[in-house]
Design a protein that fits this description.
By secondary structure, the chain is of the alpha/beta class. Helix content is 24%, strand content 29%.
Amino acid sequence: IQETWDVRTFCFMADQPIMFFFKPGQFVTLELEIDGQPIMRSYTISSSPSVPYSFSLTIKRVPGGKVSNWLHDNLKEGDELPVHGPVGLFNAIDFPNDKVLYLSGGVGITPVMSMARWYFDTNGNVDMVFVHSARTPKDVIYRRELDHMASRISNFSLHIICEKHGDGEPWAGYRGYLNQKMLELIAPDFQEREIFCCGPTPYMNAVKRLLEANGFDMKRYHEESFGATPAEDKAEAIINAEQAAEAPQPDAADLHNVEFTSTGKSIRVAPGETVHAAAAKLGLHIPKACGMGICGTCKVMKTAGEVEMEHNGGITDEDVEEGFILSCCSIPKGDVAIDY
């Protein structure tokens, strides 16, 4: 579905109809092959679980974007691809409130649209204020549907802000960027609301500064952000790697054995090394996308031993109880066995 001139929605179903269960706001990771190279990329589900036999991803074409442009140019009806997930702490179910404020910029509208569609379809008793910022009127994603929702229920208050408007584009709404005055006009009771925010990093940083300046309780502020490791984290990783190279080798007694039972391979690793690193040393390729415990792509079953796992929402409590771990952020506390 062509949403705007550079944004498309892709709708997915299973071969045999099955129901997809997810929380509005969560995301999935697509497993793709582009130019012969395997690539993982995470996208928020933009549809609602109230329409359970399919799910949709709304993707913006990005200049120079390898994956987004490939999807726009190549993904067609009838294509099949593996999908991992859904996962994500940023969702409407885990942070319920009868008054919410949705703030989005650009294609960051997708998770909050999923939330709004869920409450609209289920007739949820939730007072929603929906604020979306776009470059110009032609860049407003889901504009007709948003207008339709606002016209049908009294508990959906819609406000669209356009940075500018092009020639021949009439626009009577807010112009510029979300600021203090706009926020007070749009949602004078914003201090009482649960806030969900998604958009480009500068947009989310500006929203946070605005809320903090007003003394907002940031425990009720939620934002979605996932993607590549930030540059500072990469730099820190390089420094850590250099320090590790200079550090004395650990005693054999301090090494932990990591066994991969399905392949019959095992290796002893130093304290602090992850299960994923252990697998890589053995030539075992566990799929990985984010490397930060967010996307859930590297989930594997631990059959014995204990690990210390510091994830960022990429795995559910139910999966952890069953024995699953995220290999990218799980450090063995002793000998462990992995079903891989």
